Structure formats: structure tokens, C-alpha cells
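User: I'm preparing a small set of examples for a lab meeting where we compare how different chains pack in three dimensions. I only have the primary sequence for this one, and I'd like the structure in C-alpha cell form so I can line it up with the others. Please keep the answer compact; I'll paste it straight into my notes.
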Amino acid sequence: MKALKIDHLGIAVPSLADAVAAYETLGFAVETREEVPSEKVRVAFLPVGDSRLELLEPTEPGSPIGRFLQKRSGLHHVCVLVEDIDAALAELRARGVPLIDEVPRPGAGGSRVAFLHPRAAGGVLLELKQKGSAG
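Assistant: Understood. Below is the C-alpha cell output for the 135-residue chain.
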């Protein structure tokens, strides 16, 4: 698997409006906002050089981000951009890497994403992303 760059750092927040206001006070600017129904989240992306911060607000308490926020807050995942997510998953599966997603699912901006189990990276949840039509 060839990682092209860190695409974004996912940060779980209880209120997207409050988090955006806090980050704007720090000098960040929102690039895009959207709701991702398949993940039950509203997101805002804030550019940081060639990467971005992704603020994630759950739309349902029982969603993965909602459950995460019941125990802790802050950094949720690190997302790595890959050229071919299907090939990356096949390679990782062949190496015995524990996967959460055996096949990619829809992500923000029309991307395709898949998560690796935190056991694969020393307790860090890694997301693989292949860019979609919206960047």
C-alpha cells in the first residue's frame, strides 16, 4: 500500500457550530461542510497546508462518532490518501492486517473510504481514502 499523504485528521466534537467557532478564533477557515448520512455525521473541513482537519458531529447518539463522544473527545482518526483503495485493502488483507471495512464505503466529497482496526496501528484508528469526483 502506497500512502500518498495524510489527507486529514478526524476530530470528534459534540457541536459542529461551537467547534467551528473555536477553530475560526484560532485562525482556521472552513473549506467545506456536508452531512454524510451513511456515517451519521455532519462534517466541516478546515485546510492546513496540503492536509485538512475534519470536525465530526454525530447526527445520532448511537452512531460511531456519538459512541466515541460518550467515552472521550478529540482526535478520532488519521486519514491517509491512497491511489487505489481496492488494491490497498487487498494488499493489507493478504498481509493479515485487521480491517474494520472489508470493502470501501461512501465518504465525504464522493470519496471511498475504509477503516483499519486500531490494532493494526498501535491503537490509532486509520482511515484509507480514495478521492471521489468532488475532490
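A couple of notes for your slides: The chain has one domain: 3-130. The CA atoms of residues 66 and 85 lie 26 Å apart.

User: Perfect, thanks.
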